[in-house]
Structures are given as C-alpha cells and as structure tokens.
Amino acid sequence: MTEYAELRRLVIEAGLSDKRPIDYAGHILLVLACYTLAILLLMSGPSGWMVLFVAVLLAFAFAQVAFLGHDASHHQIFTRRTSEHAFCLACNLLIGFSYSWWTDKHSRHHRAPNQIGADPDLEVPLLAFSPEQARTATGLRRAIIRHQAFAFPAMLAFEGVALRVASVAYLWRGGARFRVAESVLIAVHGIGYVTLVLAALPLWHGALFIAVHQALFGLYMGAVFAPNHKGMPLIANGFTLDPLQRQVLTSRNVRSHPITDFMFGGLNYQIEHHLFPRIPRNRLKDTQRVVRPFCRARGIPYREVGLLASYRETFCHLSRVSASIRKSPGSVPADLPSDQVTDRPSLDVRQ
C-alpha cells in the first residue's frame, strides 16, 4: 500500500469524506443574503461612503459565490450531478464566470500543481514564477517582471476582468458542455450588472463604482489564491512524484482561525484540499488533524504559516525570481542559490 493510499484509508475511516449538503445550507443562505442586500442598497441610489460600503459588500459576496462554485465543481456539496450542474450555472449568472472553463483549468492545476509546463496557474502573461520564465521574457513583459513584486497587487485588481475574458474566450473556442447556457448566463449577468449600476448611479459615479467593485473583487480573490502555492517548490517538466509528496510539497497552508477559515472559504487548508479535493470545506480542519501528523511522522515537509507570513513568502519569492534579471547578465543573485538559475536538465524539483 502506498503512503497516499494509507492516508486516504485513514481519512475515509474517520468519515471525513462523507458529503453532508445540509452543512452548506446556512453558508449559502448567508452569502445570498449578502448578495441580495448589496443589490438592494445599490438600487436605493447610495451616496458618499455608502457607495464604497456597497462596493465592498458586493465584492465580498461575489468572491464567496466563487468559492461556493469552486466547492460544487469539486463535488463537495451535492450527491447528484444534476444539482451540482444547476448550482454551478447559477454561480455563472451571479458572478459572470464560465463553470466549464474554471473546471477545466482548475482540474489541470490539481493534477500537476506547480509543475512547469503542466500547471496553468504558472502561465500568467505578466508574471514569472521561475528564473527561467523571467530570463526568457522580452519587451514590456520583461520590464514588468523586473519589478513584479511591487506590481503584483495592482495586477490582482484586474483579476476579475481577466477571469471573465478567459471564460468568454474558452466558450468561444467551443467544446464546453454547457456552452450555450453559460454564454447566455454570462451575457445576462453583464447586461444586468451594468444596467443596474447605471440606473442607480450617475454615469461617472457608476463607472467609478464598477471599477472599485471589480478591483476589490480581484484583490480578494488574489489574496486567497496567491498564498496557496506561490513560493513553494516547482516541479520540473516531466518529473514524477508520488501523489502524496506532489500535493504536500507544492502547497502551503495558512494557519487556521475562525475568521481566516471563513474569509478563505476553507482554501487556507490547501494541503488537505489538494490531497482530497472532494472533502467538504467544513471537514478540512478535522482532516488536517490526520494529515499533518501523518506527514511529519514520515519526514514529509508540511508547510503551514500565519496569514502575514504567507504573503511575505509570496512577495519574497516574486522578488527573488525577478532578481535574476535585475542583476547584470550572467550573475546569480546573492539571496538565490545557484541551482535555482541553472538550465541543467538534471534539475528535478526547484524552490
């Protein structure tokens, strides 16, 4: 029996993989209440600081809907696939993302987290996550990557827009199971969103509201997803690891706290989520009590840090990577081990 199979047996025997849709009911109702409240406040024609409050509340609601869609796409909520599809399509309508696109992209990420050439989350046009990516960048992309640690927060502000553009492009290419339905729902969302904002606010105020709301939504999403893998070891293209080590070594947990657990949608338990993506978020803390000692007993590094430390590690990694092109050609940054900038084909796992 492999180590992963043994761990999986322990988790199943503890009953942690059982679906309990009723556990999600309260959270779904809370998120819908926040979403509805934000819409009602917006329709009332807010002014002054109330406009900013509505933008913050709606950004929070959008992100929480996205987290619920994420859970449903991992089969965490429902026992029937028809219920799951209907729920995810409803999320399409509420936030304007393609369910099919997200499932395809996210599944490829889960199969090969932090693997060069296989993980789509490493293919971000204006960022570099390895010195090789940084050194091959040219033109404007290279100029941005040179200072990517400083530019990263500003990029996250456009994340919501980027995800929608990627969704539309994916649907346009065809192949999505619910292509027509998703296209219609995204169009209805976009038209309804803009119409509602401009009907409630003067033109320029409405444009500013949209910009602030979308920026806050992107920042929130980025603040949750960025610490999960950025700065953790990269796996060379074609290199194989057993399932347990692949998922644990490339993932970082953010230390548990009731507020963090809620705001992150359970994704702060990234190690457990990657090992067992179908386990509901409210069972991940219990799963951690099985996974963490199991890994430590076998000498497998289990990375868990506080919230601020997770961001610090992410930004330091982006800075170290870009240092490989900020220095003079051929030099190796003092704070970056030489094996991180080598092109030797024998390099298998990179920090």
Strand-helix topology:
Layout (H helix, E strand, L loop, with lengths): L2 H11 L8 H22 L5 H25 L7 H15 L3 H13 L19 H6 L2 H7 L2 H9 L2 H15 L5 H22 L2 H23 L8 E2 L7 H7 L3 E2 L3 H6 L6 H6 L8 H14 L6 E2 L1 H20 L22 E2 L1
Parallel strand pairs: 2-3
Antiparallel strand pairs: 1-4
Helix pairs in contact: 2-3, 3-4, 3-11, 4-10, 5-9, 8-16, 10-11
Written description of the protein model:
This protein is an all-alpha fold. It folds into 2 domains: 79 residues, no CATH class; 198 residues, no CATH class. Helix content is 63%, strand content 2%. It has a two-stranded antiparallel sheet with strand order 1-4. Strands 2-3 form a two-stranded parallel ribbon. The relative contact order is 0.13. The C terminus is likely disordered.
Short description:
By secondary structure, the chain is mostly helical. It has helices spanning 3-13, 22-43, 49-73, 81-95, 99-111, 131-136, 139-145, 148-156, 159-173, 179-200, 203-225, 243-249, 258-263, 270-275, 284-297, 307-326; strands at 234-235, 253-254, 304-305, 349-350.
How are the strands of the biggest sheet laid out side by side? Answer: 1-4
Give the oligomeric state of the chains in this entry, treating copies of one chain as homo and distinct chains as hetero: single chain
Query: Mean of the pLDDT scores?
Result: 89
Number of strands: 4
What's the helical proportion of residues? 55-70%
Distance between the termini: 29 Å
Shape: globular
Radius of gyration: 21 Å
- The helix-strand sequence is HHHHHHHHHHHEHEHHHEHE
How many structurally independent domains? 2
